[in-house]
Amino acid sequence: MEYKIKLEKPARDFNEGFLLGNGHTGAVVYGGIQKEVIELSEITFYSGEVSQENNQKNASEAFKTMRKLVSEGEYEASMEAARGFMGIRRNYGTNLPVGKLIIELPDGEVTGYNRELNLMAGIAAISYTQKGVDITRETFVSNPSKKLFYKIQSKETGFLCARIFFEGMNDNVWVDCQEGEYTFMARARESLHSDGTCGVSLLGRVSAGITGGTIEYTKNGILIEGAESISFTLALSTDFETSSDNQNKIPLYSPSTNEFLQEQNLLMRGRGFDFDMEKEKHSKDFSAFMRRVDIDLPEDFVTGLMFQYGRYLLLSSSREDSPLPAHLQGIWNDNVACNIGWTCDMHLDINTQMNYWIAGPANLSECDAPLFHWMEKKVIPSGRITAKESYGLQGWSADLVSNAWGFTAPYWSRNISPCPTGGIWAADAYLDYYEYTGEVEFLINRAYPVFEEAAEFFTKYVFKDKESNYYTAGPSISPENSFEVQGTSFYFSNGCTYELTVIRQLFTNFLNMAGELKKDTPLVQKVKEILPKLLPFRILKDNTLAEWNHDYPAKDSQHRHTSHLLGLYPYSQITVEETPELAQAVKNTLTNKLFPYENWEDTGWARSMLLLYASRLQEGEEAYFHIKEIQEKLTHPNYLVMHPPTRGAGSFKEVYELDGNTGFTMGVLEMLLQSHDGKIRLLPALPRAWSKGSIQGIVARGAVTVSITWENYRMKEAAFLSKYDKEIRIEYSMGKAIKREKPARTEQRYSLKAGIWLRLREQEGVLQQSV
């Protein structure tokens, strides 16, 4: 099915533009008539620099003091001790927008204006009639060619005149014209998240071609007169891979003396390109990924569109050859996130994780590659230093936030540190990749070593709670909430539900990996000893799930973060089937979070979490309610899901976040297919609004590709394809969307032969194999 975003006016700002990307370069196309604006971004265009001194000298001793004081209930004194623990920000930096490529075009009355973004092909197109002449434009950013391509075509000879030029975001820019190409250079410099002296260098090159007319390259831009068609290509490149502290601080050189420019010069040549050939190559590449999955919700086209849009945005941001993973805004930059306190980086207390949750189930596992590359090259080596210097332990850990430079130290504020589980929560993507692809070599060579070294840290990090005799942990925050003691807010304590949930999952995953690989080491035995003795979930007197191992009230009971509910999703430590009392406690917690409704701290990603929780609780109507709230209250005209300014996350305007869109896509997936705990659940949270529909090509854990078709709320057919011979367990609950009583569940086992489809039909609530 074709999915396109269609609008009838040019964009006024970022939130109405069309987003394009190839995992390196991002572009937001406005579609203006007299003035076309293309906002440019680049995934490595970061200010800041690598630092080996982000952990305080005696931080590990301060941490021991904090733990002792918290254990004694001395929260005020512990907060004072934290001054010697919290991380050092130094030149942390941020991803910055590169600037704008501007195309000035002829003035004149326009009729019939339309623009569309083809999600399946990754192409933005615009059409209109100006002074009786039909005009079309097309833009795409190619991964195979690593360039942006743009074409304007008129139906009349000599009609088009244009000036194409670059407009930088600050003074660290120069432009030049040499050898028939327009060249610009920018430096990533800012003074909010760094000292203004360090960041990467970027080179941009624009080369144009015309049919008819004349073309001239000047420092004021590329000047074109009397053309029938204009096409140009743009290439961006940075020195991120080779930059060092000294190189980051050198002056802005001229082309004749800048070694970086000379090295990149030949690699970025764009002259002599064939637009149509490049378009075909790009479309073939991009659509091969997008067309793996098809969704048809005939009664709800917008939800189907937004489902595919989440896949589109991740694919555009994170390709196998991307040098960094998707940051807070994927690969784009709205020039808002980089100008506020919480900045455009890799947040490790949910945002980076949510960016990548869809990779496996949405059949885009290749998108995980840059996340693993970044963790192995930047995060884990830095995390070994943090483990030793801030916690006094072996192994690796990473706290609340990270960046292009691999920052892993505790956050630089006592309000949101310590939080040493951020890194291993992000590393869950390793296990997800294995479970959705079945690649054993990946498990052996990449996933297991990461988890083994993390387990080494956390087996020493946990400690025995004297009162309960359980293993507990901390002190740590419950991202990013606080609690009150006699009217004073405090942020960290021992026994946070969030932290223990992540540690429990780490240990469970590690033992499962070790069992599969037949490893029985002293570390494996230690984890086996600790895991069943970890402090369990706790239900409070009001029948909600405890967020901390004490009964002090939350400072903000309707906070956007719901970190203590991760046992329900993304994990399955709490399920409707196996732990009904805990599942009910989660429901009660969510009810309280949303009352009074107008006081809920609503953001795109946080609402997506509510959607995911409802899906896991198999509450289809509740899940659909959250879908509609996202669409009606948190979605821009170009279908980007936003984070508005809130009481806990201030900003001068709304911020785009990739996780709002990818979280939405994951929520729809969980409504239609769940595969945790070794079981494939079909249509577990189908709402009344979707009486019929289909989804093709999604993936269940165990590397099983699944397609489902349903009519009148009953499954018409489900098909399963495995890479390997295996047995699967399938659960189906007939009529869940239309019966208020609990429908009977059918669970059956089937054997799959590698490469052969198994097709099932539902008859009177029972799944029967069809030929």
UniProtKB/TrEMBL annotation:
Alpha fucosidase A-like C-terminal domain location: 674-743
PANTHER family linked to this entry: ALPHA-L-FUCOSIDASE 2
Name of the featured protein: Uncharacterized protein
Protein's GO biological process: carbohydrate metabolic process
InterPro entries xrefs: 6-hairpin_glycosidase_sf, 6hp_glycosidase-like_sf, AFCA-like_C, Alpha-L-fucosidase, GH95_cat, GH95_N_dom
Domain Glycosyl hydrolase family 95 N-terminal: 6-241
Coiled-coil parts of chain: none
Glycosyl hydrolase family 95 catalytic domain ranges (all copies): 274-672
Upper lineage: Bacteria, Bacillati, Bacillota, Clostridia, Lachnospirales
Domain of life: Bacteria
UniProt-recorded Gene Ontology molecular function terms: alpha-L-fucosidase activity
